[in-house]
Structures are given as structure tokens and as C-alpha cells.
Specification:
The complex is a heterodimer of chains A (294) and B (313).
Chain A: H1 16-23, H2 30-35, E1 43-44, E2 47-48, H3 50-73, H4 76-79, H5 108-134, H6 140-163, H7 174-187, H8 195-221, H9 229-240, H10 246-269
Chain B: E1 17-20, E2 24-25, E3 36-37, E4 40-43, H1 44-67, H2 72-77, H3 103-129, H4 135-158, H5 169-182, H6 190-215, H7 224-229, H8 233-246, H9 254-275, H10 287-294
Antiparallel strand pairs in B: 1-4, 2-3
Helix pairs in contact in B: 1-3, 3-4, 4-9, 6-9
Classes of the chains: A mainly alpha (294), B mainly alpha (313).
């Protein structure tokens, strides 16, 4: 009987109760390692709590509360039979700079929501560290979560600080954040001409390709009694000349996904502080000295 | 490899074709890929794919060289912006156009399409010859559907080859930008939203799965075919990690189902989104207005306060 919800394959192995009992042992959390005692070292249903779970939970509850209060009770639901997609929570005006928007002014709820969301993401990452430690795993999962957390920090903290105003952060809300992305691209000329954007998109497509190839490769032989790893190895020898090894494909995927997000961060961070117009950015290219006379 | 060499599971080298290429040992690939490189198998479909792919590449590069007046330095300087255009809009779906006004584009696109389809059949044939399910070929279909809609199906249903992108590096980016702007901003196209969701979701799944296996490597979780049949200590930990983190988890088999379908749906939903954008009666010609009617656009306080009306187009 498999652990978890998707047990269509029903592999052999120990039952869930026995597995859980052998791994749910106290200790090893970051708080236990630092101060010797961790009062939050408990499970709630299937969830591990932990000190960082408490931190993250506070961020999730208050971040959601402020966001929903603004968009549902003060937002378009109050004046328009719209749905959840239209809800919009804008950052403070540029004139607020890097200060705090006073209560009641525009951007107050945005600042509260962004603060608690950041707390939620940070707590979630460190809770993954706790769970990794408790299970005797290395830290690749919190590291890859940290890669996407760095995107949030880049958009909502680092770039606004570089530009000198919280108003540079992105508008929260499902359609409004799409509007923000669209407007941002054309505000800096055209993001299709941003080389870091191009590299990031290529890496996102490459990640999707690798995910598809890996999933399809395992599914081509999994639970097929007359096929095994040798058939897979020979298949990739036939069509590619070589092929990723069992651990290698996971190493490739881990780094591809992280690289995609880091290049996405670069394409945001350079727009504004370094480059104002990505179309005119390329003016240096045709004027390189070795093209002279062509 | 933990798995024993079982004669019934060893590869079945069937099929008519050539084995071409060197046998090399590349030790620096260790930890990433098979360190032994072995000859490719080239059957009918592979040879057809390589020849048509070569013809496409030659026509594309040679026609761009002509556009640069056969000046190599100008060719390199303008390589990223040179493009081979499809026939003009007034030529409709005609296949009888002058070579320099879309004829080369038609020929190149014909060979590119044959190349892509033949490679899929090659993947299918090799999977069958090696006693595997043809899932890699099916996964590739997700990308092929998007290609066929953009270059073949949508131009045909809209009645003009000019709807397809030019062949060129900057040209692809410009086509993507222009099709979005022309049809009222693709950010409001719900199938574009789904495609982006599956694109970023695939990257997320890849990073979650890759990180999970790397984090449990010392317990042998990377031997996924074995783990799918019998859960070992690595997969026990990997599954408990996600159960404790988010309340549920996949297993060594089902995570690859998630991966497979997320990646395929990126291409398939993207294809639907492109196909639905256009000026035909059944297509949407302004996704922003569609969004306004669907009630998903933040209302303009000064504008008309209208509610959602379905059916929407």
C-alpha cells in the first residue's frame, strides 16, 4: 500500500502507519538544535508544525486576511458583480518612496500583505529545512524553494529599494498582476528584446522539455514486467547517442529550474536600475568596430 | 545500477536501419549522463527527418544569406534580425508564389513539418523496438500540436499563410508580441493563462522532483523503476517529506504522471489559445474585451458597470 493519495500504482512496501511511526521521532529541528528545546515539534494531522510552521502560519493567515479584506470587502465585489479574478491590491503611490503608507491611505494594505506574505514564504522555507533535518535528507528542497522565494524578494523588495520606492512593487491580484507584467514589459521598450528575459524563457521551456522527457521515460517502462532500465538506456543510445543517468536527470532538472528563475530575476532587476529601453539597448550591436564597411 | 541484467529485459535490437557514430568514453559526463556514447540508430524515419531537417536549415540559412547580399560580414551582423517571410496576405493559401515572395518559406516550412513528424515516428519506432511504451513520442506530440497550430492549422483556417511566423530569430519574438497585441493582449486569453500555468508549473514540478531525489540520493531513491514497484527507504522519506509539508504526496510512479501531463498540457493549452485568436466568426479578436465581458477585469470606476454576459466572445 502506497503512502499518500495517488496510489494508483500500489507499490509493495511497509504500510503508512508503520512508516510514519518509524520516522515521527522528536528532535533534530532547527530550534531543538539551537536552543535544545522545541515546543512546536508536533504534527497536526499529516502536517508537521515546528517553530517555522508557526511563523509561516501567522504569515499565511494575516497575509490572506489583509488581501481578502481589501479585495473582497473594499474591492470590486462591493461595487461590481465581478469575481475573484478582478480583485486588486495596488502598492503605495511613488511619492511614498521607501516609507510606510499611513493607515487608510492607498498602499497600506499592500504593505501589510507583502510583509506577511514574505514572512509566510520565509517560514515555509525554514520549515522545509526542519522537515529535511528530521528525515535525514540533504537540503536541496529548501534550496530550490529559496530560488523562487528570491523572485518574490527581487520583485517586491530588492528592485523597489534600488528604484527608491515601494510603488515599484507589483500589484497583487490575479488579473491586476498580469496587467502589471504586461505594462512592465512595454514600459521598458519591449521585454521580448530583453536578453535575460529570452534566456529565462528558454530555460523555462528547457525545464518543461526535460520534465516531459523524464516523466515519459519512466512511464515508458514503469510497472511493465518485460522492460527495465536497460531498455531505457538502449532507447536513448539509439536516438541521442547517450542519455541522462538516473541521478543525472534529477541534477540537470534541479539546476535548470533554478537557473530559469535566476535569469528571470536578472531580467527584472536590470530593467530600470540599468536599462530603460530594451529595444534601443541593442544599438551597440550594429556599431561594433568589426562590422565596419558592411 | 541496482537492477540485475535480466535476459528478458535486455534490449531487443530490431528494426531496419543503420548504426552510425563513434563509441566513445566520456568520463566527464559521470554524474550527469551515460559516460559511454554509442552509435545512433538511423531507420527510415530518422533518415527522412535528418534529410528534411537539413533541407529546412539550408533553405533558411541560404535565403537569409541572399537577403544579406551574400556579404558574410553583413550576414553575421544582421543574423539575429534576418528573416524569411511567408507569402504576403493577398496571396492567401496559394502554393504558387514566387520563390522570393514566400516560396522559400513554403518550401522550408514543408520540410520542417516533415522533419518534426518523422522524428516523432522515429521515437515511436525506437520505443517499440526497445520494448517500451511510446510515451516519449506521445510527450513530443504536446509540442508538435502547438507547432502545427501556429504554422499550419491556424493559417489554413484563417485563409492566409501570412498568419504564420517568419523564419528568423527576432521574427519569432516579433510574431509572438504582435499576435498578442493584435488580439487585444494575450494576458487576458484564458488558454494563454493555462499554458503559462503549466509552463511555470512544470518548472516548479521539475525543481521539486529533482530536489527531492537529490535530497534522498544517499538512500537510493533515484532507482525509480524499482521504487515504483517496491518503496525503499529513500522514497519513504521523499513521500513523508511532502506529506508533512503540504498534506499529500505522490509516489515514485505517480510523480512521473504529474510531470508528463503538466508538460504536455503546456503545449496543448497554448495551441488552443492560439487557435482561438483571430478574425473568423468562431475566434476571439479582442481578449481584453472578452475579459471585460467575462467580468475578470478590474472595473474602471468611471466606465459602464456591466455584469458578465455569457456566451462571451
Amino acid at each position: 500500500m502506497a503512502v499518500g493519495t495517488f496510489d494508483s500504482a500500489r507499490p509493495e512496501g511497509r504500510p503508512l502507519e508503520e512508516i510514519e511511526a518509524s520516522y515521527r521521532v522528536p528532535g533534530r529541528s532547527t530550534l531543538a538544535a539551537l536552543v535544545g528545546v522545541d515546543p512546536f515539534d508536533v504534527w497536526i494531522g499529516p502536517f508537521y508544525l515546528g517553530f517555522w510552521g508557526v511563523v509561516s502560519g501567522i504569515g499565511i493567515v494575516f497575509g490572506s486576511l489583509f488581501y481578502l479584506y481589501y479585495t473582497v470587502f473594499l474591492g470590486p465585489f462591493a461595487l461590481y458583480p465581478a469575481n475573484f479574478f478582478a480583485g486588486r491590491l495596488a502598492p503605495p503611490p511613488l511619492s511614498v518612496g521607501l516609507g510606510l503608507a499611513p493607515p487608510g491611505s492607498e498602499g497600506f494594505f499592500w504593505q501589510l500583505t507583502v510583509f506577511f506574505a514574505t514572512l509566510a514564504f520565509l517560514g515555509w522555507m525554514l520549515r522545509q529545512v526542519d522537515i529535511s533535518r528530521k528525515l535525514g535528507m540533504s537540503y536541496e528542497i529548501p534550496i530550490s524553494y529559496g530560488a523562487v522565494f528570491s523572485s518574490w524578494l527581487t520583485l517586491q523588495v530588492f528592485r523597489p529599494i534600488l528604484m527608491g520606492s515601494w510603488g515599484e512593487g507589483f500589484t497583487l491580484g490575479i488579473m491586476p498582476h498580469l496587467d502589471w507584467v504586461s505594462n512592465f514589459g512595454y514600459r521598458y521598450g519591449n521585454f521580448f528584446y530583453n536578453p535575460f528575459h529570452a534566456i529565462a524563457i528558454s530555460l523555462f521551456f528547457a525545464s518543461t522539455l526535460v520534465l516531459c522527457l523524464h516523466g515519459a521515460t519512466i512511464l515508458s517502462a514503469a510497472l511493465k514486467p518485460d522492460a527495465g532500465i536497460d531498455n531505457i538506456t538502449q532507447f536513448w543510445w539509439d536516438v541521442l547517442g547517450s542519455g541522462a543517468s538516473e541521478i543525472g536527470v534529477h541534477r540537470l532538472g534541479f539546476w535548470l529550474a533554478i537557473a530559469a528563475v535566476q535569469f528571470a530575476n536578472l531580467c527584472i532587476l536590470t530593467s530600470g536600475p540599468l536599462v530603460g529601453d530594451w529595444v534601443r539597448f541593442w544599438d551597440w550591436w550594429p556599431n561594433l568596430p568589426f562590422w565596419a564597411g558592411s | 545500477m541496482q537492477q540485475e541484467i535480466n535476459p528478458s529485459k535486455s534490449s531487443i535490437d530490431t528494426g531496419v536501419g543503420l548504426r552510425i557514430g563513434p563509441t566513445l568514453d566520456l568520463p566527464w559526463l559521470k554524474g550527469l549522463a551515460e559516460t559511454r556514447v554509442r552509435p545512433l540508430f538511423l531507420g527510415f524515419w530518422a533518415i527522412l527527418s535528418i534529410i528534411t531537417g537539413g533541407l529546412f536549415t539550408f533553405i533558411w540559412l541560404a535565403e537569409m544569406l541572399r537577403l544579406a547580399d551574400f556579404n558574410i560580414v553583413r550576414y553575421l551582423r544582421t543574423f539575429f534580425v534576418l528573416q524569411v517571410d511567408p507569402p504576403p496576405a493577398d496571396a492567401g493559401l496559394s502554393l504558387l508564389v514566387p520563390l522570393e515572395q514566400g516560396g522559400w518559406w513554403l518550401m522550408a516550412t514543408f520540410f520542417l513539418t516533415i522533419c518534426i513528424l518523422a522524428w516523432d515516428l522515429h521515437l515511436w519506432e525506437r520505443a517499440r523496438a526497445n520494448n517500451l511504451r511510446p510515451t516519449v513520442a506521445i510527450g513530443y506530440l504536446g509540442a508538435i500540436v502547438l507547432y502545427l497550430v501556429i504554422y499550419l492549422i491556424r493559417p489554413v483556417v484563417m485563409g492566409s499563410w501570412a498568419e504564420a511566423p517568419s523564419h528568423g530569430l527576432k521574427a519569432i519574438l516579433d510574431w509572438t508580441n504582435n499576435v498578442s497585441v493584435r488580439y487585444g493582449n494575450f494576458y487576458y486569453n484564458p488558454f494563454h493563462m493555462l499554458s503559462i500555468f503549466f509552463l511555470l508549473g512544470s518548472t516548479l514540478l521539475l525543481s521539486m522532483h529533482g530536489a527531492t531525489i537529490l535530497a534522498t540520493e544517499k538512500y537510493g531513491s533515484e532507482y525509480e523503476l524499482d521504487e515504483a514497484e517496491r518503496v525503499g527507504p529513500g522514497t519513504e522519506r521523499a513521500q513523508l517529506f511532502w506529506r508533512w509539508t503540504m498534506g499529500f504526496n505522490a509516489n515514485a510512479y505517480s510523480i512521473h504522471l504529474w510531470a508528463f501531463y503538466f508538460a504536455i498540457l503546456c503545449g496543448v493549452t497554448g495551441a488552443i489559445g492560439v487557435l482561438l485568436s483571430g478574425d473568423q466568426p468562431w475566434q476571439v479578436n479582442d481578449w481584453f474585451q472578452w475579459g471585460v465581458r467575462a467580468g475578470i477585469v478590474f472595473p474602471d470606476p468611471g466606465g459602464p458597470q456591466t455584469g458578465p454576459e455569457f456566451p462571451i466572445r
